[in-house]
Specification:
153 residues, alpha/beta, seven-stranded mixed sheet, 4 helices, globular
Amino acid sequence: MKFTLKSNSREETKHIALTLAPLLNRGDVITFTGDLGAGKTAFVQDLASGLDIKDRVNSPTFNILKPYFYGRIPLYHIDAYRLEDGNKNIGLEEFIDGDGVAVIEWPNFISELIPSDHLTINIVNDGDTKRTLTFEANGKRYNQLLSDFKEKL
């Protein structure tokens, strides 16, 4: 399943993330694609809020991984941008296959670690606060997730 949503404001994008968050389960994997500045980290911040994570969520670009343990479900925020040419054997699979929700920005740089079943969210910056978000399910779990998500929107 694949579908696209248009958001005309930051508030609309936040609503989309907050609608998705309660549907997430332990072990879910979400990959984010989009250009620099598209809003991937902002969407993850809103997902974290929807998972009742109170910690400040920011980009893990220089850390590669930032775990957030205190919420309804742990959130593992991975930014693989700096792994383009580096050592990818740093234990990320423990978090991707872990007991929380793994959200991965720049998944193309660690494609060999991404399970075949996952949700992909592509974000395009359409100017100012407007965004185009394309959701693509890979696998039965994520087809059901997107079906439930569309129903709640």
